[in-house]
Amino acid sequence: TVGSNPTPSAIFLCKSRTGSDTYAAPVSLLVAAFRLPKLAIKPRFLAIMAMGRNINPVRFRVRKAAWNKANPWCCDFFAHGKRVRHFFASEELAWSEGAKLTARVTEKGMQSLHNPDGLTVKAALRMFVNEADPKSSSHEQKLAIFEKAFGKAFSGAVGDIEAVALRRWIKGRSANTNTQAMYFRYARMFFGYLASNRLIQHDPITAVPAPKTKPGRNILTPEQMKALLDLELPDHVRALVLLGGFAGLRTEEVQAMDWSHVHIRTGQIHVPPGAMKDSGGYDQRIVDFTEPLRRRRAWLAKQSGKIIPVASETLHAHRRRACAPVLAEWPDNCLRHSFATYHLGRAKNAGLTAYQMGHTSAAMVQRVYAVPAALADWKAWWAI
Predict the structure, then answer these.
(1) Which of 15, 36, 381 has the alpha carbon at shortest distance from 226?
(2) All domains of the chain, ordered by start, with CATH?
């Protein structure tokens, strides 16, 4: 329903005779259809007259589609004998879509249904993926996952996507907040790319709060780390475990480095330009040896060439197979999370921990790792 003095563009609602469906249409269409003076009749009479006459210029209804578990709310849009159906995760989004389609057809005609204004979601995704920097195989995999999921959930003009729809979509991807955070990051990259290239007028992701992650669940215990190192590991898998857990290096960084970057004499690791993650911060960094690395200098000194001499997929397969006796499932990013937690627990200096990890924000390190660090047995970790 609308107020007692509706505008011509206002939407009015009415129930069908059976009461099972709710229809909507702009007041201006009914005024024209009944040849009434503009706004000369109250909305409640418009509803009665609409039910009494067979008028079907432009209207839509919202109904529950219980069979569609992912998007159970359907918006049926009718215009001049044509019907368009869109499904949504919430009733509010379905009503919003109906209002948008009504306004579009009223202003621009039926052709606007087939040719939405501006860049389409499909075309925007194609541009984003083609121009994305292939930082790592993991990034490429996540990019493909995002493209498929986002393209399936959204259609039409990318500029029509609202923040409320993004919030619901991200939250509906998984109950795991870490998974939600992954979709949020890639949505932010996607809309940031469109906004920076002036392909959209506003960036809806700026109104979407970032999911709060829980990295604590991905922290290895000292007992688990000891058990891993006691296994018969291939040299490249052992190197990944040591440099990730005791130096905080990213897997992608280790893959891009060779053993000449590990300086045994000075007890430092140089993460060179090209290996560092391009996050707008440092382009290289120096990481100090920790006690577990110093205890293994003899083994480190024997290594040469590429630290990881195999492809990314092969590395992950070798790691899964070799570490399965201790970790049946490999926790995502567990080595780096463990380093951050135990390093901050001992150093009590978020700025130092952030630099060793290659982060520019000490506040972020403090916020994410302070509580896990306070509870962690850092003495046992650095005694390994």
Answers:
(1) 381
(2) 11-114 (no CATH), 121-212 (1.10.150.130), 216-382 (1.10.443.10)
